[in-house]
Amino acid sequence: MRTIWKGSLGFGLVNIPIKMYSATKQRRLDFDLLDRRNHARVRNKRVNEKTVEEVPYKEIIKAYKYNGKYVEVTEEDFEKAEEEKNQIIQLNSFVDEEEIDELYFKKPYYLAPEKGNKTGYGLLRDAMRKTGKVGIATIVMRSKEDLAVIRPVGDALVLQKLRFGEEVKDVDELALPHKVDIGGQQLDMAVELINQFSTEFDIRDYKDTYTEKLLKTIEAKAKGKKKPAPKKMEVVPTKTKDLMAQLKASLSSGQPRMRAS
């Protein structure tokens, strides 16, 4: 794996030198933009909006518009803004993971100890595992500060970025039902239907079938084959008066438990 960040993990007065690695990878097909007329690549160019000339990469700077004027911001300015946080992830508190709503979770990263520093790393991991707690910290990466949770996953410590509270929109903006007036029998049948389809979660049961089907379509086109057009699926919402009938039909259909497609 490629190291994307190096620094220390602070635990009280203990500093554990670590490396950070991306824990996920993109699984999608990369498409190029072409000119339909001759299949030549279409390129994006950085141009000066006044001269319409292409600007060499070395001449491009970052700037912030302040009081109507641009102020140039250098890499040194970014480093000075939070010099300490650029080098250390300080665990500020420990909480029960269940207290953090999944709505706040973002991208995960693996943390690994630098050579010769496995003891402190293992101590922190095992202590969190024993207490059932996860650590809360902040980290500065790519000129941006993020809130993060650090937790043990197997033998690894995983850092997962969190959204700040102000980054999550308030549901009050949505027209949601506060209470649904339904008969007790309907609710009982809905609960029974959920129980009928309940199973243990195993991530290996779920596959990205869309990318696989799209790749097969591309392969068929490359070989000059034409795949039949898919039938358009029409989704018809169940009307309130039909709910009971649909619930009964679902329970009596004898269909297997829901699994990944």
TrEMBL record:
Gene3D superfamilies, from UniProt?
2.40.290.10
Question: Which Pfam families does the UniProt entry name for this protein?
Answer: Ku
Residue span, Ku domain: 52-179
The Swiss-Prot or TrEMBL record annotates one GO molecular function as: double-stranded DNA binding
Report the domain of life of the source organism: Bacteria
Entry keyword set: DNA damage, DNA recombination, DNA repair, DNA-binding
User: GO annotations under biological process?
Assistant: DNA recombination; double-strand break repair via nonhomologous end joining
State the SUPFAM superfamilies in the record. SPOC domain-like
Q: Which InterPro entries match?
A: DNA_bd_Ku70/Ku80, Prok_Ku, SPOC-like_C_dom_sf
Leader peptide range in chain numbering: none
Q: Which family does it belong to?
A: Belongs to the prokaryotic Ku family.
Q: What does this protein do?
A: With LigD forms a non-homologous end joining (NHEJ) DNA repair enzyme, which repairs dsDNA breaks with reduced fidelity. Binds linear dsDNA with 5'- and 3'- overhangs but not closed circular dsDNA nor ssDNA. Recruits and stimulates the ligase activity of LigD.
Please describe the quaternary structure of this protein. Answer: Homodimer. Interacts with LigD.
Q: Which HAMAP family match?
A: Prokaryotic_Ku (MF_01875)
What is this protein called in UniProt?
Answer: Non-homologous end joining protein Ku
Organism per entry: Pontibacter mangrovi
Per UniProt, what is the name of the gene that codes for the protein in this document? ku
